[in-house]
């Protein structure tokens, strides 16, 4: 071996773990140096991602650190030690149940928990506290898909695997912006499509999203018309004789009734196209492609699930797959992709209100007795509990008087979010296990318990293709933080259930979970359960630690796991057949009105996760979309007198949402889109769920989060201002008085505030305001009075303490340079010219790179357009020159859009 | 073209204007064959602008000297004062009685300090700061003595700073409510006053001189202000404006306003006689800064060489002041007029201030205090009447980037 070219960090080691964000469940290779993670990269041997990682995953190590963590237990606002906290908790839970019965206590869990945490929670609450009210935020994400799978297949079992996307001839993305929400899977699909030019991709979505980048066909359907579309497809298949009669005959039931119900409607292409508000020819093309291909994957997500008829929509999709026999073979199947990293793990243990445990429901024959015996549980409930929305209604009614919320932020994520916050504020006992101080939920918590987070938690998660992976504890818990399972185990001892919760390591929990999955579960019997990981029983700690990713079932029949389910056409239903069910298409329950004439759609943005408690810690993830926004069609914008970048307000029945206008032709007329991430911790009034009415699917209980009804108007406001405050001073500054709008944007070294004054506040005396609100004196300022512009900064020696610009944010330079000036480690003296540049916000002569397009490599728009003008005419050429789009690839659609825009200039 | 050997050009005045004219002519092949320069001061030509740093001890006397005008047919005569011009015979009379014939004549007699009309102004040790002689006088002031400078303009402050460096206690009297009121706005003037005060110069603004009182030797001893205050003064430097030296022109029967009236080719009504520099009046305006003189020289040289000259036009010119480390740069109006907009930047800790006056998206005036490097660029944008457009937002922070943006837009 020759000489090493680079010095290796001797203290560092690599560890394999799993990403905590979306349902793809990518393997992560982390570089652990002492008590920190210095780098992350895609695990090349993990089957989900094979070395890829998206921008969020790539920034994982930037979201760590003790700052902003919940470090000690708190009771009624007072910091206490663990013993005190647990004693109080045990006493209050006991008192609540003694006075109001077992059902007065509830748990609200999260797809962010590990399977082991979930298992202990389910066992403790249902088995020992005797309450059925255990639900989870997975209800908001995929309950409809679960309900539909259970109805159709007899089990909550995703039949497909990721490889099917690569092996399909046709991939239909419906209600899924895969490019942004499951970027690695999207990259796999895109690569497969490059390899196989015959592969077709159809995108069905009311909005033109970045996923359309690889679409051969785009159907911009009217919101909520999905079931009509797929019912029509079934009719088309029947009419054109494209049914798999043999499959239906041997492996399915209910086809005739289903088809008959479908044919009650007008199933001509024209009628369906009119109802779905799309072009008839495009619709027929889609129908023809679907009907004539065997290897079809329909991949669906929240766009289908978050509906008052989500279960039926899923069923309409499943019906088409069953009717065409497009299931149980490589490259085919109805594929629900989940939003959260461990939604599936939670369902495996039964951590939902309508489930009991281990894929057994309350009504599963013999299940209650079986589980009672296995757990040694004294008082298992016999009926399902309240599902998420109902649960909070029960709290509002005072029936549930104590709720323990783990690893989720329902005051942001549930419909009518502002009301949820009021409900919790009035609830006698709110217990919150949380790792981040900036979770808005903490404002209404009575007892706060510091929980471990990613990089500390140790256990397993199951991704969207049933693949169980180890998420490993790589760093010691900060402060007094404990694992959720530990907290519950400690509490169980105080409640007198110690012997049933004697776990000392997650491996023991996993083993118990595996044993329960295999208990009385014989694949040869008609009441077999698809979820069976009995093959993983008895792993000792070392074997558990070394567990490689494996897809369930793992049992005697499938010792190495199984990529696909139902390959033999046998289903865990009473008849052993899959069920087709008649679906009556229903439009969204939320109706429009004169005062709320626009249809509201909600969703994620590429670089953020959930309520931003973690992703907002990585400054580069704030670059892609830095403020809450509202996307709307140019016609609607014109009608409301709204121009790009203007602050606007949406009004719904339950609340308001304020953000900046983004005018998009890809947004249908009469419809607006807002991101679901922002909340009270980051913006004054930008909670998407404040606009959503809690209308739920009657079967799944999943709320109709994709359909709101809103009115729109320009937000009346006075001045606008941008304020940057040095990170270490940011806690001391509250600049939001008299603000009609505010947003906090964490940067690398500074905290940025985007502010707009109330309309009646009039002209502000900024010098006076600065003296009152900001630390230290004004060191420099500039004015353009005719235009009402002011810039000022406060400097302390070599350090910049704050920076203010009064004026429209459109005049802001890209703030990276300025942010770097806040770096306390940067000792460069501030000379006169540099000081003046501070107010300019850019280094002299340095090119403003523009808004960041490629987050991975921090490449800005101006840099890219300049390269295009120099002659780089393809995404690949830009990547070769600037590295943009070469890591996670999620900015490639934006690169393409820039190429198209710039081609105008180039041709000139 | 052959040289016009018959032509004798006489230049009255060996100041900066006369010297510049002759040296420029010397570079031209078609210049008049014979040139005589008559200088009233005994010394050879020197750079008057450098008097301040010389007084402040930053330069040696030799460094002020302008290059000698040595060429065939050129004669330079210091200490030669002209007392009369006979236009009919093209003849000059010198103080010595000597008479000198000219074919063409350039009057470049400059200007003299304007003296306030108060009692005692003729006392000893009351002088100006215009000439090397004045400089010599000021350099003789004893450390610890009291000097009063009348006039808080550019020249007065330079004299004050020079004297301060010599260890003299200096007081500046300024009639206006701020220093350099014709160039600086209140903020910049205030900062300047603060800086100078910190250095030990006493500044009295809004102060008007009532009279001077002398001692038994006829030298100044004190002065009294209109408000009754009395200040001790061992010397008084008057720097309160200048008066063009137009007497010769008046005596010769030329049209004279404040200065000798000339057209845009610097010609008087007498086609053989021209006036140049501070003594000249073009379109009713006289000048007191060096830049327009250079412009006049360009025009006059062409005229004298029988070329078609670019007519002289009084262009706005910037003021630069450097008083030991304080850089100032200003041009255009000081106060915004109706409809004008103001851009300002201030960094008191670093003594960095600038203010731009904008009218109809164009720069009309500027004050730069501290860092003046952008001054010429801003001045160029003003004189080229450039519309600012998007550059406006950046302009105050640095002209370079703003101009780059203008170019990008173009």
TrEMBL record, chain A:
GO terms for cellular component: membrane; oxidoreductase complex. One of its GO terms (molecular function) is metal ion binding. Pfam families: Fer2_BFD, Molybdop_Fe4S4, Molybdopterin, Molydop_binding. Coiled coil: none annotated. Its cofactor is Mo-bis(molybdopterin guanine dinucleotide); [4Fe-4S] cluster. Keywords: 4Fe-4S, Iron, Iron-sulfur, Metal-binding, Molybdenum, Nitrate assimilation, Oxidoreductase. Belongs to the prokaryotic molybdopterin-containing oxidoreductase family. NasA/NapA/NarB subfamily. This is Nitrate reductase. It comes from Kushneria konosiri.
From TrEMBL, chain B:
Residues 319-378 form the NADH-rubredoxin oxidoreductase C-terminal domain. Residues 8-284 form the FAD/NAD(P)-binding domain. InterPro entries: FAD-bd_OxRdtase, FAD/NAD-bd_sf, FAD/NAD-binding_dom, FAD/NAD-linked_Rdtase_dimer_sf, Rubredoxin_C. It holds the Pfam family Rubredoxin_C. Gene3D superfamilies: 3.30.390.30, FAD/NAD(P)-binding domain (3.50.50.60). The lineage of its organism: Bacteria, Pseudomonadati, Pseudomonadota, Gammaproteobacteria, Oceanospirillales. This is FAD-dependent oxidoreductase. One of its GO terms (molecular function) is oxidoreductase activity. Its cofactor is FAD. SUPFAM superfamilies: FAD/NAD(P)-binding domain (SSF51905).
């Amino acid at each position: 071996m020759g000489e090493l070219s680079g010095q290796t960090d001797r203290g560092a080691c690599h560890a394999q773990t799993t990403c905590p964000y979306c349902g793809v469940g990518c393997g992560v290779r982390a570089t652990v140096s002492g008590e920190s993670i210095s780098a992350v990269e895609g695990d090349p041997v993990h089957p989900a991602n094979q070395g890829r990682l998206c921008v969020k995953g790539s920034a994982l190590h930037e979201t760590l650190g003790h700052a902003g963590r919940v470090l000690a237990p708190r009771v009624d606002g007072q910091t206490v030690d663990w013993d005190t906290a647990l004693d109080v908790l045990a006493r209050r839970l006991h008192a609540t149940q003694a006075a109001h019965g077992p059902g007065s206590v509830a748990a609200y869990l999260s797809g962010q928990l590990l399977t082991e945490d979930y298992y202990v929670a389910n066992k403790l609450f249902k088995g020992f506290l005797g309450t059925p009210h255990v639900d989870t935020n997975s209800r908001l994400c995929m309950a409809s898909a679960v309900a539909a799978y259970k109805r159709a297949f007899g089990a909550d079992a995703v039949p497909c695997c990721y490889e099917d996307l690569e092996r399909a001839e046709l991939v239909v993305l419906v209600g899924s912006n895969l490019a942004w929400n499951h970027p690695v899977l999207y990259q796999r699909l895109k690569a497969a499509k490059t390899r196989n030019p015959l592969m077709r991709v159809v995108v069905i979505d009311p909005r033109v999203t970045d996923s359309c980048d690889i679409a051969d066909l785009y159907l911009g359907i009217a919101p909520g018309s999905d079931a009509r579309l797929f019912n029509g497809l079934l009719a088309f298949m029947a009419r054109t004789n494209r049914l798999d009669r043999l499959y239906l005959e041997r492996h399915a039931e209910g086809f005739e009734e289903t088809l008959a119900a479908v044919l009650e409607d007008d199933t001509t292409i024209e009628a369906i196209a009119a109802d779905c508000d799309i072009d008839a020819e495009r619709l027929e093309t889609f129908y023809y492609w679907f009907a004539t291909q065997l290897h079809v994957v329909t991949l669906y997500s929240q766009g289908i699930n978050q509906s008052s008829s989500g279960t039926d929509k899923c069923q309409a999709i499943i019906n088409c797959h069953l009717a065409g026999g497009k299931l149980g073979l490589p490259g085919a199947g109805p594929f629900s992709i989940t939003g959260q990293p461990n939604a599936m793990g939670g369902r495996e243990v039964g951590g939902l209100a309508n489930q009991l445990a281990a894929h057994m429901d309350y009504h599963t024959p013999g299940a209650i007795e079986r589980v009672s015996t296995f757990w040694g549980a004294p008082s298992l409930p016999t009926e399902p509990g309240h599902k998420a929305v109902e649960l909070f209604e029960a709290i509002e009614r005072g029936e549930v008087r104590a709720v323990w919320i783990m690893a989720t932020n329902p005051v942001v994520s549930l419909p009518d979010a502002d009301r949820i916050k009021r409900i919790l504020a009035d609830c006698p006992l709110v217990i919150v296990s949380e790792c981040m101080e900036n979770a808005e939920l903490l404002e209404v918590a009575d007892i706060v318990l510091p929980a471990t987070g990613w990089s500390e938690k140790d256990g397993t998660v199951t991704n969207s293709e049933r693949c169980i992976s180890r998420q490993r504890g790589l760093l010691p818990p900060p402060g007094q933080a404990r694992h959720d399972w530990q907290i519950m185990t400690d509490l169980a001892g105080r409640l007198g259930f110690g012997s049933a919760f004697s776990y000392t390591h997650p491996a023991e929990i996993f083993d118990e979970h595996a044993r329960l999955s295999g208990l009385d579960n014989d694949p040869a019997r008609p009441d077999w359960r698809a979820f069976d990981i009995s093959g993983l029983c008895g792993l000792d700690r070392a074997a558990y630690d070394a567990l490689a990713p494996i897809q369930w079932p793992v049992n005697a029949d499938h010792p190495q796991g199984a990529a696909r389910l139902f390959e033999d056409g046998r289903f865990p239903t009473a008849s052993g057949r899959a069920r087709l069910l008649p679906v009556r298409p229903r439009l969204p329950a939320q109706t429009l009105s004169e005062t709320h004439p626009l249809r509201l759609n909600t969703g994620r943005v590429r670089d953020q996760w959930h309520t931003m408690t973690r992703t907002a810690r990585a400054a580069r993830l704030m670059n892609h979309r830095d403020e809450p926004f509202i996307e709307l069609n140019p016609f609607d914008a014109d009608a409301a007198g709204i121009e790009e970048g203007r602050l606007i307000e949406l009004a719904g029945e339950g609340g308001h949402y304020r953000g900046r206008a983004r005018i998009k032709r890809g947004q249908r007329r009469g419809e607006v889109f807002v991101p679901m991430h922002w909340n009270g911790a980051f913006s004054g009034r930008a909670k998407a769920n404040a606009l959503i009415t809690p209308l739920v699917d009657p079967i799944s209980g999943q709320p109709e989060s994709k359909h709101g009804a809103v009115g729109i108007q320009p937000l009346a406001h006075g001045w606008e201002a941008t304020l940057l405050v040095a990170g270490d001073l940011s806690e001391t500054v509250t600049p939001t008085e008299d603000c009609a709008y505010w947003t906090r944007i964490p940067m690398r070294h500074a905290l940025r505030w985007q502010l707009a004054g109330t309309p009646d506040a009039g002209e502000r005396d900024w010098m006076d305001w600065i003296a009152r609100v900001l630390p230290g004196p004004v060191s420099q300022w500039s004015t353009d009075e005719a235009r009402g512009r002011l810039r000022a900064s406060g400097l302390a020696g070599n350090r910049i303490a704050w920076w203010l610009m009064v004026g429209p944010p459109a005049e802001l330079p890209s703030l990276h340079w300025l942010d770097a000036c806040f770096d306390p480690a940067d000792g460069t003296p501030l000379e006169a010219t540099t000081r003046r540049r501070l107010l300019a916000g850019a280094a002299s002569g340095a090119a403003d790179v523009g808004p960041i397009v490629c987050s991975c490599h921090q490449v800005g728009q101006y840099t890219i357009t300049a390269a295009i003008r120099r002659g780089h005419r393809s995404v690949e050429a830009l990547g070769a020159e600037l590295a943009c789009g070469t890591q996670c690839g999620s900015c490639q659609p934006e690169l393409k859009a820039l190429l198209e825009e710039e081609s105008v200039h180039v041709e000139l | 073209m052959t040289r016009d050997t018959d032509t004798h050009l006489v230049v009255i005045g060996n100041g900066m204007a006369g010297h510049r004219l002759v040296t420029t002519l010397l570079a031209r092949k078609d210049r008049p064959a014979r040139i005589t320069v008559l200088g009233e001061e005994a010394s050879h030509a020197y750079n008057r602008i450098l008097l301040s740093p010389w007084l402040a001890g930053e330069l040696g006397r030799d460094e002020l000297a302008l290059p000698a005008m040595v060429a065939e047919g050129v004669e330079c005569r210091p200490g030669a004062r002209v007392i009369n011009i006979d236009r009919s015979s093209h003849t000059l009379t010198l103080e010595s009685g000597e008479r000198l014939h000219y074919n063409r004549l350039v009057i470049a007699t400059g200007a003299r300090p304007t003296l306030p009309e108060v009692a005692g102004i003729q006392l000893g040790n009351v002088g100006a700061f215009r000439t090397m002689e004045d400089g010599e006088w000021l350099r003789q002031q004893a450390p610890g003595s009291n000097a009063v400078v009348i006039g808080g303009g550019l020249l007065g402050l330079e004299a004050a700073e020079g004297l301060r460096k010599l260890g003299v206690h200096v007081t500046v009297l300024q009639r206006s409510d701020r220093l350099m009121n014709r160039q600086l706005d209140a903020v910049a003037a205030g900062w300047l006053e603060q800086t100078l005060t910190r250095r030990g110069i006493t500044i009295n603004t809004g102060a008007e001189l009532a009279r001077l009182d002398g001692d038994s030797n006829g030298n100044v001893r004190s002065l009294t202000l209109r408000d009754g205050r009395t200040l001790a003064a061992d010397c008084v430097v008057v720097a309160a404006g200048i008066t063009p030296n137009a007497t010769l022109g008046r005596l010769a029967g030329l049209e004279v306003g404040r200065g000798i009236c000339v057209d845009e080719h610097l010609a008087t009504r007498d086609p053989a006689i021209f006036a140049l520099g501070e003594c000249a009046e073009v379109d009713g305006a006289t000048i007191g800064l060096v830049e327009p003189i250079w412009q006049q020289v360009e025009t006059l040289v062409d005229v004298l060489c029988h070329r078609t000259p670019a007519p002289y036009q009084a262009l706005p010119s910037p003021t630069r002041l450097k008083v030991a480390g304080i850089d100032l740069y200003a041009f255009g109006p000081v106060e915004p007029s109706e409809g004008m907009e103001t851009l300002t930047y201030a960094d008191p800790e670093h003594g960095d201030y600038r203010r731009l006056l904008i009218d109809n998206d164009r720069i009309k005036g500027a004050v730069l205090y501290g860092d003046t490097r952008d001054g010429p660029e801003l001045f160029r944008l003003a004189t080229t009447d450039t519309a600012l457009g998007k550059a406006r937002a950046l302009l105050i922070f640095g002209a370079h980037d703003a101009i780059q943006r203008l170019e990008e837009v173009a």
